[in-house]
Write a structure and sequence with these properties.
The chain is α+β, with helices and mostly antiparallel strands and 287 residues long. The chain is built from eight helices and 14 strands. Strands 1-2-3-4 form a four-stranded antiparallel sheet. A four-stranded antiparallel sheet has the order 8-9-10-11. The relative contact order is 0.13.
């Protein structure tokens, strides 16, 4: 096809085997779209294409991804608002005839409809990071790290210390939008039994989760992060877990800072003498 439809906030270029979506970077463009930049959606990842009326003299072209095809939509789990839907192109009403032809042509090329057994759309690229309410999250493509905030993290999280999670040990992610109550990102373990059972601790007490809210963990920051982690975890699902003995030694400066924070908790009465002694010994053993 090779044609382009330019709508509000995005342009779709139709190719023989994919749709290339380029999102605008204007101040009115949703921040999630700006964060995504450019995405290539293989036709094999789409279940259907629809065209319908929009608001105030517009029409809406929407592509529906197949379940399991796009890590971003898998992580979102139906929580995105209409304005943040990356598969929705809003067009001026005068473009309806052209959009109708493109939708028909595209629909004729689609061959799949059921769930995909692997991701077909590329995830956001690492490294990625964002600031949650109770800590900072970072992902380098192989390991997720949570570094707790002195002011926001619960004493339970401070007692466990900063956390590192190799993607080979993860079975998935649980993303709860910061636009809803109790927004958070929780990392789920790879073990089938543990991943299938509901989490036993609230997110603010779980060292495998960071909490959103109050301007932290915003959609355009935390959702691409969750999608990248989810894609990496599924890509390495068949790999053997990394032996503990083979894990890299921790940075001495990082250990020293964690011991300092532990000492502050101890002085504040949030950690007992016994807990301080045991945790300090564990940290020193990581050197």
């Amino acid at each position: 096809m090779g044609d382009v439809l330019t709508g509000f906030h995005a342009a779709w270029e139709f190719e023989s085997d994919s749709v290339l979506i380029r999102y605008e970077r204007g101040i009115r463009t949703p921040k999630l779209f700006q964060a995504l930049g450019v995405r290539r959606i293989p036709l094999a990842a789409l279940a259907r294409v629809t065209l319908g009326p929009g608001r105030r003299g517009t029409v809406v072209l929407r592509a529906e991804p197949r379940p399991g095809a796009d890590p971003l939509m898998d992580a979102a789990d139906g929580q995105l608002t209409e304005g943040n839907d990356p598969y929705r192109l809003v067009l001026p009403a005068e473009q309806e005839p052209l959009a109708e032809r493109r939708a028909a042509e595209l629909s004729a090329l689609l061959t799949g409809s059921g769930p995909c057994d692997r991701h077909l759309v590329d995830p956001p690229e690492a490294p990625l990071r964002f600031k949650a309410y109770d800590g900072k999250a970072s992902f380098d493509g192989g390991t997720v790290r949570f570094r707790w905030s002195w002011t926001g993290a619960s004493s339970a999280k401070w007692k466990t210390g900063d956390q590192s999670f190799p993607v080979g040990e993860l079975g998935g992610v649980e993303w709860r939008s910061p636009e809803a109550d109790e927004g958070h990102l929780r990392l789920l373990p790879r073990e089938p039994a543990a991943a299938a059972s509901p989490p036993s601790r609230p997110a603010d007490q779980d060292p495998a989760a960071v909490v959103f809210g109050r301007g932290y963990g915003r959609v355009h920051e935390s959702l691409p992060f969750a999608a990248a982690v989810l894609a990496a975890a599924r890509a390495t699902a068949s790999a053997a877990p990394v032996p503990v003995a083979a894990a890299a030694r921790r940075d001495p400066a990082d250990i020293a800072e964690r011991i300092r924070h532990l000492g502050e908790l101890h002085q504040a009465g949030l950690v007992t003498d016994e807990e301080f002694t045991v945790k300090k010994a564990q940290l020193l053993a990581e050197l």
